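User: Fold this one for me? It's Legume lectin domain-containing protein.
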Amino acid sequence: MKNSVLFFSVLLVLPFATSLHFNISRFTPGDPNIAYQGDATPNGAIELNNAGYTCRVGWATYAKKVAIWDPETGRPTDFTTSFTFKIDTRNSTEFGHGFAFFLAPQGILISPNSAGGFLGLFNETNGYSSRFPLVHIEFDTFFNDEWDLLDIKSHVGINNNSLASSNYTS
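Assistant: Here's what I get for Legume lectin domain-containing protein.
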């Protein structure tokens, strides 16, 4: 998406463990804390998927493993995240399908043939499901009749291992 900006901060509280907190206010090339894949370009913000090209995808992920459950009890831990982004469609009729904030195993790679509405996480060969455990929040800017419900267009959805939203709001 042309002119897309993404900032995020995460606070994870792990019971009986050390808390993890990080705040990333500027994205720069060479930062060992962020792994960039595909068309994700750091320049203070993160530009994703140049709209001048089709079938493109990019990721920026936290490069280190983050425990989201207690290894002794197997219970999930609490976490809080916040991020700021901008999708600017004012000066163009060409823009991407959206983007996702996702939780997935460390070290995963962009799925092949996963551009557009697949948000870099899915493709047709895996039946619109993920090949690894995945929860994501999608910021969907384009209606896909294969999996989006007919009564929603642009929306924010909570998705569990699927392109179809478990819960959503316009």
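One thing worth pointing out: The domain at 5-169 is CATH 2.60.120.200 (Jelly Rolls).
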